[in-house]
Target: CARD domain-containing protein
Amino acid sequence: MGNSNSAGPKAEVPGTSQGVTVQDGGVYNTPQLSGVNVAGNLYMNVSTNVPAPASTETNVSPTVRDPALNRESRPQNGSPEDKLFSIRTEFVQRVSEPVLNQLLDQLHQQRILTQEEMDTARSCRTKAKMARAVIDMVRNKGSVASSSLIEGLVSLDPTVSKTLGLI
Model:
């Protein structure tokens, strides 16, 4: 599996020629994958009785599962368009029609949406279709437009904004 001289418990990881070694308060993973395509999310919970080192450094953003929402929340470090894309499904489910109409008015007043785009969104038969139209139109217009939608939602509906991780 790995170095037979290493101290500490080891766990085999299927599909790798080497495994995971827990020693000196750290977890060492040196898999040798060949011809393996990984799609989707991979979650691993590691529990040990080995104390953590005094200081650790990592470049990985933490992922936290929010049981109340049954979703993962990640720090929002990306572009405003990425933020909107990451919350799109929940935005469609949670935003109210009155808030959507106020957002449309604000975005039109700021000249982000044209009269025709605003009318197109309002002509949607369901609130969900209207929400999809609004978030997609704005996201496709870039960072300034996406930031304006986020700021508008935060001011109009702080509760939904907090649920979506925008504040």
